[in-house]
Amino acid sequence: MSAESVTACVLLIGNELLSGRTQDANLAHLATTLNEVGVSVREARVIPDVPEVIVSTLNEVRQRFDYVFTTGGIGPTHDDITAECVAQAFAVPLIMNEEIAETIRGYAKVRGMSEAVLAASLRMARVPEGACLLPTDVGAPGFAMGNVHVMAGIPAVMQSMISKLAPTLAGARPVRSRSVGAYLGESTIADALTALQNAFTDVDLGSYPFSEDGRYGTTLVARGTDEARLEAVAAALRTLIIDHGAEPLERS
Fold first, then answer.
1. Domain shared by 152 and 211, yes or no
2. What's the pLDDT tens digit per position in 145-167?
3. For the segment 189-247, what is each residue's pLDDT rounded down to a tens digit?
4. The last residue of a domain, from among 116, 140, 168
5. What is the CATH number of the domain that holds 195?
6. Residue 12: phi, psi to the nearest 5?
7. Beta carbons of 88 and 56 less than 8 angstroms apart
8. Residue 133, class by beta-carbon neighbours within 10 Å (0-12 exposed, 13-18 middle, 19+ buried)?
9. What total of structural domains would you count in the chain?
10. C-alpha distances in angstroms, 219 versus 22, 41, 70, 136, 246?
């Protein structure tokens, strides 16, 4: 891993996401949480519950990124196939983890589950051989294989998992940002913004149009890991705006 940048890819797995029946609520939380420990999400994909797609995508991205995080597909139903696919990607067998199984049996006894419901729930105890468990205070644990971390799709469960996992990750410096707005069109400041980006190559600059009270403008955002450089860019952005005849608007 680079001391300057530790990268991640997020795979959101599930046909329900692609059909529009379910709105993703995990990516923003994951990206924000990971950034705070210095892991930068560089790519995110939504992929279907299709074994060959999951396996090939996993094998691609785990080679390209320091970390891979998946959500979805580790529940008790027939279409929860992420565990099988991870096992296939790593060429290891899928086994029953007795620690998870005992936890599920304990839930079953307390809740009076039928044998059929217990049998379905025990699907969540299957993990690839050699996997490490990802603890959670809600539901069954996830697991990790190599740099792939497999988490639940249910937001409350995923959030519990990542809250425990994130502090254990080896990250770099968190990415911070500065934002300055102005009632100026993007095209008006495009050339000046390009010149500024060329002068500060270690900072990422972006422009984002907005509309407020019937007026159109642009928010300029600088992102980087060096607070001093960000302050310098923010000052340069304010000067750029003033030079174009507008008043800088502070943004959070």
1. no
2. 999 999 999 999 999 999 999 99
3. 999 999 999 999 999 999 999 999 899 999 999 999 899 999 999 999 999 999 999 99
4. 168
5. 3.30.70.260
6. -95, 110
7. no
8. middle
9. 2
10. 31, 22, 32, 39, 13
